[in-house]
Predict the 3D structure of the following.
Amino acid sequence: MTKSISSGEEVKVLPLKHTDGDDLELPSLFELVKLCIAMIDTGKAFCVANKQFVNGIRDLAQYSNKDVIVETSLTKFSDSLQEMINYHTTLFDQTQRSIKAQLQTFVKEDIRKFKESKKQFEKVSEEKENALAKNAQIQRNKQHEVEEATNILTATRKCFRHIALDYVLQINVLQSKRRSEILKSMLSFMYAHLTFFHQGYDLFSELKPYMHDLGAQLDRLGVDAAKEKREMEQKHSTIQQKDFSSDDTKLEYNVDAANGIVMEGYLFKRASNAFKTWNRRWFSIQNNQLVYQKKFKDNPTVVVEDLRLCTVKHCEDIERRFCFEVVSPTKSCMLQADSEKLRQAWIKAVQTSIATAYREKGDESEKLEKKSSPSTGSLESGSESKEKLLKGESALQRVQCIGGNIACCDCGLADPRWASINLGITLCIECSGIHRSLGVHFSKVRSLTLDTWEPELLKLMCELGNDVINRIYEAKVERMGVKKPQPGSQRQEKEDYIRAKYVERKFVERQPASVSPPEHGTKVLPQSQEENMHNIPEKSPLAGEQVTASPTVRSNDSGTQHSADDSREHLASIISTNSLFEPEGEKRDSSVFHDSKQLHPGLQLYRAAYEKNLPDMAEALAHGADVNWVNTEENKVTPLIQAVLGGSLVTCEFLLQNGANVNHRDVKGRGPLHHATVLGHTGQVCLFLKRGANQHATDEEGKDPLSIAVEAANADIVTLLRLARMNEEMRESEGLYGQPGDETYQDIFRDFSQMASNNPEKLNRFQQSDSQKS
């Protein structure tokens, strides 16, 4: 709408095209608000339907609880989809605030005021027209009326000018505000979409490796299914050609069966009632009991509670064939097999189970000792650890039990679901996205609910925690007057704080300027260890030489066996002298060192690695210590090699997660894998092999870790090294570079990792046996 105002007495108002406010595009704004409301309602309905679908996936996962792969996959997918539903809900809420609420306010309030101004303008325009008409009608000779009409016209014109100017000003202001409101609401709407898609991208980026692994598993399952189908077809073909005139079925029994069932199959059982009827039932021998079931899902009925109290015999005095009787002190049970071979198999199985029950009940302590023997301990303890992992606390619960971990380390939001594995802290999803943008050399982010956690990594998270790290990285926050972000703070404020905290390290308590690198000749080992170092024979692991022990030969030659035992006793005495086999959780007394606060950061990290002091190690890294710092005065040993000498698995994992070189070698040409092999640290050997250690590297004597392990007769380490070498050769021959290896290889290493983290004493069989000898 435009208005023309003359500079003279007349103010001319031209008839305009859009006098009802259509030039403000009000119909379009009204329509946009209606469409926005419809979109929000539809989106909420979509979220409700999607949530029901996700609940259906969760129900299917619970129903498939016996299939670990299906249950785990469906649970992960349902959790991710639930996060996406939350993101959708947030998007629709922001849309409602940015478009619906904002534009509705503009249309209802500002346009209403504009229309009121328009009515006032039209009213004064009409009054001016009436004043002009009246002024024109006055006769010339009526001077009094002429003067009155002129005064009225002048006043009306003056009023019209003011109202017209106000009206035009309000139109211009409204036009400008219309542009601002539309663009501001649309910009807010687009930023909401940007955040939505960014969150979705981050979520599925975390899920992508798992989806890739699941796809590979499905390919393998498809191959296995095809193979099984071919085998079944061959069995069908064989069965069709087989002569069933005589039943030659052979039923085998296994006293050491993994599920505890020695033998099972169908038998006829004679009832104890007056009619002596025979019924076909599914019988099994398990847990030193004889039980049967009417149907597969029924609870078993116990026939004999303790096989030690019963006997079994043939029954030839009844009309039915293939019968035998199980007699206990209180009752007897008459049973019938389908053939003579099956009867003999059942009788032998019952007799063997009776003998086994006597053996097991008579000496339970001997059975427990047998389970922990070197020949079976590795596999059994691995399965126990795996079972414990499945039934125990989840990674989220275990990590959140550590001090300060129930809230985000950087903003304080409760119940964080993400973690930085190299820092050992928990984070909310927004702070985890900021940490991810810093780069993996500053922070490695993982999900506590979506990712699989290795036992040594989970143990590392439990050794540090938010309280420990914040005491280091936020030491000067209060003194500097810096305000820590809150959960509701803007993302930019959080990002600036996190970057200042971890990248620039502004809040770390700096060491005194007088601190300098160690002087020439400075020793970093405790005094007791330095003294013992001088007493080590020339051919010893700690003096830089391999123990010259001849390989153990399993034969009846007593002389050969004696030489192997001597070498092992010699190695055990060296180990005992230098106190390198302390329990994982036992920390070394730091009083033997100087004050670590006055050390050069590299030297502080070096000493703390030997002491198993993770907080001091984290502090040294915060002060700028090089994780691969080399002590030129101690045979070019690095903190990682010191961690090996200290005997701590979690200390090695912390250094590796922070970029330690697993293949750095000392002046003797020995890397961490060499030292771990010499000292018999099986868990560390397993860790280094998983982290890409080169087991083909040789020391100055030309010995690689495998030859050292063979000379020391350490069966566990020899097994790990040979498996790793075989897996490496298989991957090279098949061109599978960068792949983890086959399932058997992964399962064995997973079992060793579980034992090293949860039951390290089971991997000290070599040292324990030696100490018992001595």
